[in-house]
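Run TetR family transcriptional regulator through structure prediction, thanks.
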Amino acid sequence: MTDVANGVAGHNGGVTDAPRRGRPRSAGADEAILTATLDVAREVGFRGMSMDVIAERAGVSKATIYRRWASKEALVLQALRSAINPMDEVDLGSVRADLVTYLNDLADRMASGNMTDVLPHLIEWAVHDEQLRVELDGYVAHRRQPLVAILTRGIERGEIRDDLDLDTIVDAFVGPFIYRKLLTGDAIDATLVDRLLALILPTITP
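Sure, done. The structure for TetR family transcriptional regulator is below.
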C-alpha cells in the first residue's frame, strides 16, 4: 500500500470536484492516479507533467482523471494531501526519548517518502503559485506539530528551558534534514539524529 492511500483528515476541502452522478468512483483508480501523479512529479516536476502521461502511468483514460479533478492543479494538490502520512504522537516520559523516536521517524520518512522526493519540485512551483504555497505551509506545519508538542511537554516537566523560542528550536532540529534533502544529498539517518541531539540538547536543557 502506498502513502497516497492514507489521506489526511482536515486536508481535503476545496480542491476536488463535487460528487457527480453516474458510476461509483473506484478507490483503486483514485489511488493509481494519485500515485502516478507523485511518480511523474519526481521525474519531471509538477510544472513539466501532463495529464496524458499521468493517465498512461495510472492505466486509466484522461477522461477518467478529469471526471475526478477539473485541472492539473487540483489533482496535484490532492496528491500532495494524500501523500502526508500522519505522524504518531510520541510521549515516552522524557524529552530525550521522545526526540529520539520522533527524529528517527522523520529521518526514515525523509529518506524514503514520496512526499519528500518531490519537495524540490514542489518548492520551485510554490514560488509562482499562491495556493500551492499555502498547501506547502500546511505540510510544514503538519510535520512540525509533533515536535512542538514534545518540546512543550518538556518545558512543562522542567526538562527544557522556558525562556527559549520554540519555533527556533524546531528550526534547529529540522533544518539539517531539509538542507541535506534539498542541497547536499548527505545521509538522513540515525547518525544525523545522534549528532543533532548531542549538539542541541545541552543548549536547551536547564
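Residues 130-156 form the longest helix (27 residues).
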